[in-house]
Design a protein that fits this description.
Length: 163
């Protein structure tokens, strides 16, 4: 039962990666507005559940964060993109250094693209805002590749068990 739950969760996660990737490619920069709305709404919902469960401090805090994201998300977007770019660039650099010893092309390429996307996000504020569309398309492709790879891995695991 527990393994079936994990397998279903893995399938759902992989499909969500593909869906998010497609949404990034289709909506590009508009996807950020959608994400800010969803994240804000999730904070508010979490806050409501926390208040309902007698955790008033955490609940009110989550509701306030949700409202700030919903009402002022675009005001903070430049800062969020810069921080996200820095985090992606650092993660990409660390992954790239770690993957060079493995000599696995896929992990080296993924780390390199992650580093590139991070640097582009950092530069997007000063270079061109339209570069954000390119970054989100690349990010969408990465999500789709990751989701498909996960689905193929799940499918091959399932075939191995039947034999």
């Amino acid at each position: 039962m527990k393994e079936s739950y994990k397998n279903n969760k893995a399938w759902i996660t992989a499909l969500l990666y593909v869906l998010v990737g497609v949404l990034f490619i289709v909506f590009k920069a508009d996807m950020l507005n959608i994400l800010l709305t969803v994240v804000g709404a999730l904070f508010i919902i979490q806050g409501i559940f926390s208040v309902a469960n007698k955790d008033s401090v955490s609940g009110v805090f989550n509701i306030v964060i949700g409202l700030v994201i919903l009402l002022g998300g675009w005001l903070f977007l430049d800062i969020v993109l810069l921080v996200f770019g820095i985090l992606l660039a650092v993660k990409g650099a660390i992954d790239l250094l770690a993957s060079l010893s493995s000599k696995n092309f896929r992990t080296i390429a993924t780390a390199g693209v992650t580093l590139l996307v991070g640097v582009l996000l950092i530069l997007a504020k000063w270079v061109l805002w339209s570069i954000l569309d390119i970054i989100l398309i690349i990010l969408g492709v990465l999500f789709i590749i990751d989701g498909i790879t996960a689905l193929l891995g799940l499918n091959s695991k399932g075939k191995g068990k039947k034999k």
